[in-house]
Amino acid sequence: MKRLKQNNQRGFTLIEILIVVAIIGLIASLIAPNLLGRFEKSKEEITKAQVEMLSSSVQSFILDVGMCPNSLNELITSDDPKWRGPYLSKKEIPLDPWGKEYQYKCPGEHGPFDLYSLGPNNRLDERAIKNW
Length: 132
Description:
Layout: H1 2-8, H2 14-65, E1 103-105, E2 114-117, E3 129-130
Antiparallel strand pairs: 1-2, 2-3
């Protein structure tokens, strides 16, 4: 009787396992591009927020001191007697989500100052995130 029960039990065949793996691979190939696209979009949104925050800090510096900072580091420390900083709460200049420094120019070509991230392709083009 025990021998009869053992013969009736079956496991998965190799073909059944391959079909399941193929289905999982198909589902993953459909979902992965959407997830990667959202991840890249979130980096761009973070960069936009940081550019706005840094721009506001530079504008506060200009209002207090009466001139542009020579570099973004002056938002944290300065010897100017009119300086009321630090103008950044974390007391450090953040890097953009791609690990690069934000670019700053004063006087700017597009306004009183230019502040931007070179973006994912590390070039000043349409994908760069700018304050103008």
